[in-house]
Specification:
By secondary structure, the chain is mainly β. The protein folds into three domains: 22-162, Cupredoxins -  blue copper proteins (Immunoglobulin-like, Sandwich), CATH 2.60.40; 172-319, Sandwich (Immunoglobulin-like); 340-457, Cupredoxins -  blue copper proteins (Immunoglobulin-like, Sandwich). The protein has helices spanning 22-30, 104-107, 291-295, 444-448; strands spanning 42-54, 57-64, 73-76, 81-87, 95-98, 122-127, 133-139, 156-162, 172-181, 184-186, 196-198, 201-204, 215-217, 222-229, 236-239, 245-250, 253-261, 263-266, 271-277, 283-288, 299-304, 340-347, 356-359, 370-372, 377-384, 390-394, 399-404, 407-408, 413-414, 416-419, 424-430, 437-441, 452-457. The strands form seven sheets. Strands 22, 23, 25, 27, 28, 29 and 31 form a seven-stranded mixed beta sheet that branches. Strand 27 (399-404) and strand 28 form a beta hairpin. The chain is globular. The relative contact order is 0.14.
Amino acid sequence: MPVCWRATLYNKRMESRPAMDRRQFLAALAAQAAPDSPKADITLRISPVELEIAPRCTIQTTGYNGSAPGPVLRLREGRPVTVDVHNETPIPEIVHWHGLFVPSEVDGAEEEGTPMVPPHGSRRYTFVPRPSGTRWYHTHVSAGRNLKRATYTGQFGFLYVEPASDPGRYDAEVFLALHGWEPYLGTMGADEGTLDVIYQSFSVNSRALGYGDPIRVREGQRIMLRILNANATMLHRLALPGHKFEVVALDGNRVPAPREVELLELGPAERVDAIVTMRQPGVWILGEVDDRIRKAGLGVVVEYASRQGPAQWAEPSGARWDYTIFGRRPDTPPPDVEVVPLVFRQKFAGNRWVDHWTINGKSFPKTDPIRVQANRRYRLRFDNQSDESHPVHLHRHSFELTQFAGIATSGVVKDVVMVPARRQVEVDFVADNPGPSLFHCHMQLHMDYGFMALVEYAGSPPAAPVRHGHQG
């Protein structure tokens, strides 16, 4: 049973509001959903949420439409959509449409020039959803040391873009979002060095393991699992004893070579679409491989028809997660320009403090922009010279893996990739969506402490400066 502390929604020391220049202020006013505007296709309300993930384990957080995760948004590729966002909290907020190729002014990143949704105010987003596949939406603000902000909260939800045609080789579809709750800054074990985020409890969707409805299946069914790691900082490894996952898409993009694997691994913000054929009748746990995390709630019961009894768990065989097995033999054309090196390092900030992070020796907002020209193909080399893995994300674009930790590959298209500690990863992307585009580590703590840069297109105006203060 998960340990659970009763969280408070806001710190008494309310964080200061981010600075907003005149251009952003006027844009925010203009973006208000006026009373006589046409009705939006979707309405999202950012508001306090009380979430009972287990008996006597209630989380107070911020979510969408009174829940966490928020509603699954199903959109049609290429069909324009209008979303009204109402911020019912006393602090500025923003919604990022993760994985969509949308203009920077609606992408949901203040660093790119998207206006914030003011306290007790509204903003209308209008965009054409593309590409198809499993995307998601979430808040994109700074938290610093205030772990009741940003992606530590319940502000996340699936956004599924329906393709024009879908062969539908499955019998049922299940959306599963992984999240950690009750975070605090501390040190693990005997380590008294820098601080890290530690979670007291976990859930899949809105329930801890054993406290929600099971996934009910029948023998022979093919179940499509669309899985999202919505944790602010933690990587998760999942297994389902006696079953294998046929991975068909990563970050919503179909893979060239679907494969069956025993274990799934998802860094923060990554998504996996996997089909499981139900061949082992019983009652099982689909859950985190790490015993401590699974017992703290990170799992869900899978129950076959006419089967009862306690849910069973067994350790996977020790299989290793590898992006490249889903790719094809290297056939990527050379980039139009030389490789762009991006070196990641950490800066020790002192014992009992939080490390800072640099890209090519500088921390955001002082990082050098990654300058590109429209419609050219670029190869980025992520050179991780730190002792931690990093889920790096590029807004408003996808990229193709060309080399992962020394293994050449092609065809695997993502928008987040876990760069292993002390290793290199190379990706190609086409600069085909002009405007400022944020590049950052998706671990909230790393992003807040310097691990960000902007991609800037030649001839496009840079984004307005944003003041980033770490909140206490």
